[in-house]
Design a protein that fits this description.
The protein has 201 residues and is α/β, with parallel strands linked by helices. The protein has a single domain, classed as P-loop containing nucleotide triphosphate hydrolases (Rossmann fold). Helix content is 50%, strand content 12%. The protein has a 5-stranded parallel beta sheet with strand order 2-3-1-4-5, sandwiched between helices.
Length: 201
Amino acid sequence: MKSMKRGKFIVIEGLDACGKSTISQKITAYFDAVMLNALPKSIKPWLHTIGKTEHPEATFSYFTLCNIIKAQEVNSILATGKNVILDRYFYSTYVYHKQMLNGNVPKEMMAIYNELLQPDLVVFLDVPQKIREERIRGRAVEIQWYGDAVSLKNDLTNSYFEMFKELNTNVLIVDNYSNSANATTAIIVDRLKAIGLDSCK
């Protein structure tokens, strides 16, 4: 009996307000994939309480647990042959908290991430800092101290690139400002087809 072909695992990364949700939805629809966000339903309610602590050590631990649980969920779906598009993974967790902790991150944290399920491809959506700031300030939602507030004060783009290099990540960097959403999607689709994803179109 022929074994089932394992699905591909794709992560959409980038700083706040770079268009991750929009692009994730377009890619998911194109390939009839399973789209997931970074927060597991089982512990999503915890974030409200943990967020009130305003301790980055607490949110770092929480989001790391989210990544571990999400990796297990993704692995189960891939085994069925479905492709998975994940909106953010451990890259954002590490980069944001490294900034909040002034670089004082235990080396064991990187070791944990290095042992987690690795994506077949990470797509990093690059948008200029000034544009992202305008988008964040224009949102009618509360600015989170562990999220939007961090990327408003700091351009963490290079921190992502350094992490990708350290982990030898297969990454596609796409300008999601100069390109329209459709143009960005087309670039990503071409790359995903090249690594073996089949279109449902």
